[in-house]
Amino acid sequence: MVNGLSLGAIYALIALGYTMVYGIIMLINFAHGDILMVGAYIGFFSVVVLGTNIFVAMAIAMIACAVLGVVIEKVAYRPLRNSTRIAALITAIGVSFFLEYTTIFFLTPNQRVYPAEAFPVTNYDVMGITLSSKDIFVFISAVVLMVILQYIIKRTKTGKAMRAVSLDKEAAMLMGISVDKTISITFAIGSALAAAAGVMIGVYYNSINPLMGIIPGLKAFVAAVLGGIGIIPGAMVGGFLMGILETLVSGYGSSLYRDAVAFGVLIIILLIKPTGLFGKNTGEKV
Amino acid sequence: MQKTQHFKPVQFIIEVGILVVIFTLVQYLISAGLLNQYYQINLASICINIILAVSLNLINGFTGQLSLGHAGFMAVGAYASVIMTTYMELPFIVGIIAACLAAALAGFIIGVPTLRLRGDYLAIATLGFGEIIRVVLQNIDYVNGPAGIMGISKLSTWPWLFGSVVITILVIVNLVNSSYGRAIISVREDEVAAELMGVNTTKYKVLAFVVGAMFAGLAGALYAHYFYIIKPETFNFMKSFDILVMVVLGGLGSTTGAIIAAIFITVLTAALQSFPAIRMILYAVILVTVMIYRPQGLMGNRELGRRTFGRLWGDKK
Amino acid sequence: MSVMIIEHLHKSFGGLSAVLDFNAYLEEQELIGLIGPNGAGKTTVFNLITGVYKPDEGTIRFAGQNITGLPPYEICSRGIARTFQNIRLFKDLTVLDNVRIALHKDVQYPLLSAVFRSPGFFKGEADIRKKADEFLEIFNLADKRDEIASNLPYGEQRRLEIARALATHPRLLILDEPAAGMNPQETAELMELIRSIRQQFNLTILLIEHDMSLVMGVCERIYVLDYGQIIAEGSPEEIRNNKRVIEAYLGEEVS
Predict the structure, then answer these.
(1) Distance from A15 to chain B by nearest Cα, in Å?
(2) How many separate domains does chain A show?
(3) ipTM, 2 dp
(4) Cβ of B190 under 8 Å from any chain A Cβ?
(5) Fold (CATH) for B9-313
(6) Which residues contact B230 (CB under 8 A, 6 or more apart)?
(7) Which of A138-142, A257-261, C57-61, C64-68 has the lowest mean pLDDT?
(8) Per the domain annotation, does A286 fall within a domain?
């Protein structure tokens, strides 16, 4: 159960990135999971090469990936802003493979182990439940980040701009909001959260590899759809639900089917209620 | 842009003639041992990839529905055919037919629920189903799960490969240049308007999907009986991605483009065999570059064929 | 018997009522107008009739049958065709293909016929071509048959849209702002066209229009919609002098 919450927290962080980007430019950012991977690697090198502690490593990863997210948006997605969504999706798939195989090319496809010194693992016994310091780290960091995000969205001008652009791009422009800048910031924040999640996965599971972003990315995407794509609280709820569901299935079923469960959930949602738990149905104007 | 179809005997004879020449030439080279292993493998891969690209183009290009699970149908066809030939020791033709039927059925079962979904959701759903097929196959002991099946007889000879390519192209081109094809294209152009002009868009989407899946199954059967080993991992998303790159590069909506791109990518893959990472990076770059700078791909909407060659034998407009 | 009877039609989006208790009837071969200020819900009514939206409540009967909630392609088969406010031609296809697609149900040959190019296929294609050409002749578009639709001048695009709709052999033709963007001369030609096709094809015609000269000029009866509800119904004369209508259009010329 504790596992489920930690896992859920990680999925929630990643799902937020998907949902924010979809909310603002209606794009399923296929490459989001791979940004997570880049974050994990940067965190890794920060600890191993620069000798920083895990918190600094996470911060560096978050900043670096924020930049990466902005660059990707500018180079690959912005030119397609007025194209069909399918065109943008195809491009996103291309970006995803690009990130994966560039990493493989330069850093080999092999796994690397997150050094244990980066994060001393101790176990605590609280009311009969064993809590590992890993769980505490993941859960608390994730919650802190989510709270900061909520603050940004609800209380700052940037957050207001983000909400405005996702509701009506043209109206926002007429209000003097820089749509380009707002979109860039959205990507930056989403990517930073993914990077944090990547570092957490590295710490939690101890190893990283260039293709590590695919499966968590997929599960987080399902989480975002489950909660209602484009809806931020939905992503958080969806993330936790997916984490708990996965832990339960792991407990009962074979792990070979564990990943397929995510696809199964996705297809069920898409067929029954594609707008997700919190979503509203808006039809196409004819 | 569709010309009205009339039967032109002279053109027909010339086309058949060209096909006969190509077939006999290659068959001769193979029988005389003049084509070494490397070229033969490439030739087989080219044929299989042409079938995959042309069939995916029917779904993605002509109907405008993004399907990302094409490899799944290939898997269904491959496994179905192998069960017929290797497990039940039936002739190759039975395996081929089983592959086509099984893949078409899979296309129908998957298509009917998913084709109701909107563009990007449809894409993700097809991706999901493609992966589900792979995972399910990994868990079926009858076909050895993840280890796959080995020692499949090499039944995909040149006549089978060539014949399959010709039939695939023929069927799909004829389908597209008919009222069925126009209905399918209208779905791509403007689904709402098409519906209001009386086109049952769901029916035509499913039709394209099933036909596309069927030929992917055919390709799967040919693949299994040439490369003699199949495992679920062979038919993963990366395979679907490869086919997608071919279709996008060739031009969504151009069969000729799909053929040219399939040949190009197959040759490129063979050349980069020792550098798999570079190959994937290159494909990713090609995909992104084409989408941004030349989304219509190499051929756009156009076909090489009637218009270009028509002038050779005195076609009148 | 009325060709179409609409009763108590309701449609809301989110909490907003777009159409509220809409009732109307159309007699055989009548030319009816539906007018109202922008946002009154006119296109929503069209979308409800043609099956693009499903009504929350109410019924639509056409030629004696209940067509409420049927899918659009089914409604088209029953004999209702339409054009669109923003011209929805198949832009990248030729003029000929636009019409041929509308004819796809007219001439049907089996799928296998198409694949194996049987004589039935060639005959079918020739038939479709002939019928398509006939329609294009009527609308003076025959010489443009191989042009890409989006290359046509605006007025011809609108004509093509009507031609395409007619190729589905409708009994009821619904036109959504057919005169939008036209100058007075084009509008006059359009009025002629509407009158002549009504006669030639025995059509009942329902149209939305903001151009009052066209509405007053061709329509025999007019419904006026405001905030989703009908506020008036009657002949052009009656509508012209109706106080509520004038108020609804406050600031606009009702000439």
Answers:
(1) 16
(2) 1
(3) 0.87
(4) no
(5) ABC transporter involved in vitamin B12 uptake, BtuC (1.10.3470)
(6) B75, B78, B79, B82, B148, B149, B152, B223, B224
(7) A257-261
(8) no
